[in-house]
């Protein structure tokens, strides 16, 4: 039996696709997204900032010698996808994508256009079940979990209802990974635009998607015991590797403000 794609309730991945200018969304998603834009008009800028952060973090880690990625909460494919960015630096890079939205599954072929030297795979899985993801055949056949892995969870953890649950999930994913592995996170916050961001939180929750905006102090706790890479915790658009030129595919104009983005981002290495 095929997985049912619900068109009667909005879905965060399809709303994200709409904000990025994609077409893999339904009327119910567009309606909810337009409500968000009325209270937070720069949401399109915010999601582009997240995408740009993912590009920058992926490039930086590939240049540090990492070769394996587990990308959870992948979303609907938007080129360049993570594996395209990683394999542009290191053609042997291996990437496993994970998402629980049937629409993402329907487009998963676009996530598996690997270089001949590398490899990609897709798992239809739920972040709330780390063991099922880590033990999935696609993960075991694609990644060597005895060697460093990048755990990428961009714009995902703010959908976990409680801070305690978020910590527990991260521990379950990170604990089995060896020293030298990396954590890539971004997270929505109300600290940079309290009025607009809190209204966005209200709209998501009313639409049936739990959204929890968190301050920098709480975001920082996700990296306890890890070694933050420079520039540390910053608004997503300010996460730049010191000394690195702005990449050609940077999606953001230089005039973007912290309030327009309202996401924190950081990358850390497991000692």
From TrEMBL:
InterPro entries per the UniProt record, alphabetical: SAM-dependent_MTases_sf (IPR029063), SAM_dep_MeTrfase_SAV2177_type (IPR006764)
Pfam families linked: Methyltransf_19
Listed Gene3D superfamilies: Vaccinia Virus protein VP39
UniProt-recorded Gene Ontology molecular function terms: methyltransferase activity
Signal peptide: none
Classification via SUPFAM superfamilies: S-adenosyl-L-methionine-dependent methyltransferases
Domain of life assignment: Bacteria
Keywords linked to the UniProt accession: Methyltransferase, Transferase
Name the record gives this protein: SAM-dependent methyltransferase
Organismal lineage: Bacteria, Bacillati, Actinomycetota, Actinomycetes, Kitasatosporales
GO biological process, one term: methylation
